[in-house]
Amino acid sequence: MKRKSLFIILTIIILMIIPNLTHAQTNDKVYVIPIDGEINRATKNFVKGVLKDLEGEDVDAIIFEINTFGGLIEEAGEIRDLIIKTDIPTIAFVNNKAGSAGVLITIASEKVVMSTSAMIGSAEPIPNTEKILSMWRSWLRDTANYRGRNSQIIEAMADKDIIVNGVSEAGKLVNLTSGEALEHGIADYISNDYNDIAEHFGYTNSEIIKENENLQVKLSKYISNPYLSSMLLTIAFVGLVVEVFTPGFGVGGTISIIGFGLYFGGNILAGNSNWTSLALFIVGLILLIVELMIPGFGLPGISGIIFVIIGVILAMDSVSNAIFSISIAIIITTIVGIILVKRGFESKLFKSIVLDNKHEKEKGYISSETRNHGLINKNGIAASDLKPSGFIDIDGERFDSLSDDGYIPKGTAIVITRIEGSKIFVRRM
Known about the structure:
Blueprint: H1 2-26, E1 29-36, H2 41-54, E2 61-68, H3 73-85, E3 90-99, H4 101-108, E4 111-114, E5 119-121, H5 130-146, H6 151-156, E6 175-177, H7 178-183, E7 189-190, H8 194-200, E8 207-210, H9 215-223, H10 226-245, H11 251-269, H12 275-293, H13 299-315, H14 319-342, H15 348-353, H16 368-373, E9 379-382, E10 389-394, E11 397-403, E12 413-420, E13 423-428
Parallel strand pairs: 1-2, 1-8, 2-3, 3-4, 3-5, 4-7, 11-13
Antiparallel strand pairs: 5-6, 9-10, 9-12, 10-11, 12-13
Helix pairs in contact: 2-3, 2-9, 3-4, 4-5, 9-11, 10-11, 10-14, 12-13, 13-14
């Protein structure tokens, strides 16, 4: 009897354990990788880093959660390659918007899911030159064909001249809702939940593990944005000019250091450049400081300007963005410099470039205005035609003058009538 009771108890325990063991064996790991905001080099480096970390791990699938209006197409192309090359099954989950470069990343995955309120489309490249558009369309077309998507619809998202019956209109880019994307085979499923997505594609009892962008990635993404980089660069140069025009080290210098620090730091963190760009920039600044300490303007100053510009250009992700940013910075900085000069601020740098001919009476200098005042009522001749300006000769010395009598031919006798500042006025005798 006791043996029978023991057998029953053991049987019940085994029956309770077996389902749990089965559950443990069928528990799938699904990783979620966010692709959020502007697509840039920081985004690419983040995706690349996560995929590298997952190599060799027990990963059943990856969900790329996409919410972007687009970004740099070169980086989008590199992300596409990373997704296609991974051996881990991939699912693109458009959780709001997949625009521009986001379209390419979306269709690179094996499966595509859209949330109920999501949109996909408007993938026209900027600038939309014939060369860039042709290259971009080929990327979209090849990727769509590789994943078995409707390449014509995908291309129509980038080129408004492509007309797809029942989908697009002439002169308009294709934008699809989640329902339309599902209808036309661009999406495979509509869902708003990670677990539901995983279950739908056969990943049962999934453990959802979400990878998050760390602080470094987030900062680098925002700071390396071309528009923000332009603003930081402008602030830094303006601060530098203010510092040059004010004695000692103050607010201008502090702002300049912070601006340049964020500009270079953000682009280095984003992977747009390395420490070489910062080193070149610092060498340029040192050369400009040396130029301030010596008279005239020569090789150190010219070399310093060249090194500063090269350092700034190398820091950004593209030459065109760098030229745009530095052009804006130079224009605004020049305007600020002109305003400071007009307000009476003096710069040691400008003094080293421009010869200072300022003299004082105490040092024995008599201004031209004081000296010329003694010429009133003096007689002479016109050394050139006065039309009404020209030259006159007074006791063998030549002066610039203006006629009060209109045209006065060369050789005509004249008399100086008045002096206004540095201007000498004459009339016929």
